[in-house]
Amino acid sequence: MLRSILGEELFWFSITKLLKSHKWDSVNTSIFKNTLEACSGLNLTRFFDEFIYSSNYPRIKVHYQYEPTSQLVQITIDQGNYINSNYERVLYSFKIEVRLIDSLDNVHTKILEFESVSRVMAIFHLEPGAIPNYIRIDPEMSLLVGIKLEVPTHILLNMAERAEDIRSRILAYKQLISSGLPNIIEQVRVRIRKEPFYGVRIQVFSFLCKINSYESFELISELLLLEKDNLALSKISKYISNVSCNLITKAIKTRISDPKLPQLALRGLLFSLGCQICLTNKTDLLLNYMHQSKDLLQVGGSHISNGIVREFLIKGLANTKEVDSFDYLVKCLKSNSECYFVIPTLISSITKLAISIGTVAQKSSAIDLIVTISQSEDNRISFACIDSLIKLSAFEKINLIESIKSRRFINEDHIWIDKQIDKFFGFQPQLNDFMEYSSPIDALNKLNIKKVTNVGSITRGPFLPVADSSFNRDFSGLLATVHDLKTKIWELEFKNEQILAINSEREICSQKIEAAPDFNYTTFTTNSASKTDSRLYPGVFRHELSAEPVTINDPDLEDSSSKSRRFYQKDSPSSLQIFQRKSLGQKNTSNSNKQSTKSPQIKIKF
Description:
Blueprint: H1 2-6, H2 8-21, H3 29-40, H4 45-51, E1 59-67, E2 72-79, E3 94-102, E4 107-114, E5 119-125, E6 132-137, E7 146-150, H5 153-162, H6 166-179, H7 182-192, H8 198-208, H9 214-226, H10 230-240, H11 246-256, H12 263-274, H13 282-292, H14 306-318, H15 323-335, H16 343-357, H17 360-373, H18 379-391, H19 398-408, H20 415-427, H21 431-435, H22 440-446, E8 453-455, E9 458-460, E10 465-468, E11 473-474, H23 476-512, E12 551-552, E13 602-603
Parallel strand pairs: 1-7
Antiparallel strand pairs: 1-2, 2-5, 3-4, 3-6, 8-9, 9-10, 10-11, 12-13
Helix pairs in contact: 2-3, 5-6, 6-8, 8-10, 9-11, 10-12, 11-12, 12-14, 14-16, 15-16, 16-17, 16-18, 17-18, 18-20, 22-23
């Protein structure tokens, strides 16, 4: 885009000056911008704000209209949020080139400029006898822009077949295939057979895989058999792994059986074959191909590409969801004959099969095997083991993960492992771990569920699961237990605070007390909205006492055996009553009736 704004000569002059003036130095975007402005004399602030510092880019919609009687073609381009409703509508400032090619091969070009407007228009006058053939939007591909075409089908067909730039061809094919009409798919078939650009063919595969129709599957299988480019075949396999039908499966098996098939294409097709849902006994089929390929796919083969191709065979077996595949992969992992860089994929595939099969036996076997392999000194293998234990919900193996971290990363904090450990606490935290740095009530508070969400097959809150369908566990009863524990611990600590407070007063008073007349008492009340826990207000019970005896107006304390029973006022549970001696003549205040009363005085003897 900058080259189109500045021009080729000025742009490269600015780049050369930037390299010379900052040789052996680091530069940032601001320095780059200032250099371009100094060399060109242009103000590039808006350009950098819109296309460099902003996270969005312009989206345009192209409308086409043709009037045969007047030989006029009108092309209208709108900026708008046609792609995503969440797209922030911003009017970008840029220039865009529009070309119209007629039936006489005349090229009509106009440059439209968006400058604080949402719509621009180009009108072309055709020669007598000429009709529109196809259009090209931004033919030099100099803009970062999303384009959607609203043009007739015959224009799109000509555009897909004759446009010189790849993007115009891809845009035309996308619009044609998205219709899903059988007659249009047939027109696409005729043109894509002769498509010279393999990048266009790859994109056509991706568009066809999104159309769930017999015509699209038939075209996919035909193109798969005709494709000769190795890179295109490897890319195509990524898309056909998401669709399944007998035609595609037959085409994949035919291509894999070709002994001259390049390794780059072979590995992708092996993976796609394992993803074919319509195929049965996929394990036997894949292993049969492995035995036919001799050294290339054998366990521990000496071929230089053995590990690369075999890795995708293992991924294909992981998609079969068959017990035979699981048993074979477990056997391979136990044999210790695999290439070291294949082992992480092998561990992940075993985990995927154990989860997809869903039996307790497979999960337990996978966990035990992964625990054994986790002692490896290779970081990639250790990471694969940790990730698999998380996916298998092996809650009891949290200590193993911690030991791997402490053994291999003693002096550094590895972010990835910490995140995996956090996932463990996200499913089932250990109460003892919380209690190491907090009180029991705080530890239980961390287990409290505030909101239950659905994540896959597990319904859970932020810390504690409610139900886990993969292990047939129900944690709903555990929630009630947690709340009961919280209540009981709170009551015990509440009583403990009472006993500690009165014992503290008794020790102090026993040293200072002397015979004294009766005194009134006063109360101190905390805010009703505040908590009255001495852990939150550590100074509440640490008040100073004078040498005079403390007297309390409470009939329940007449019995010396019950003198510590009513430390908190009975009538006002939210008010913390602290009884201490104040000045003589001070009145007695009650929170329950807000009146001063004079009552008989009872002396507490310690």
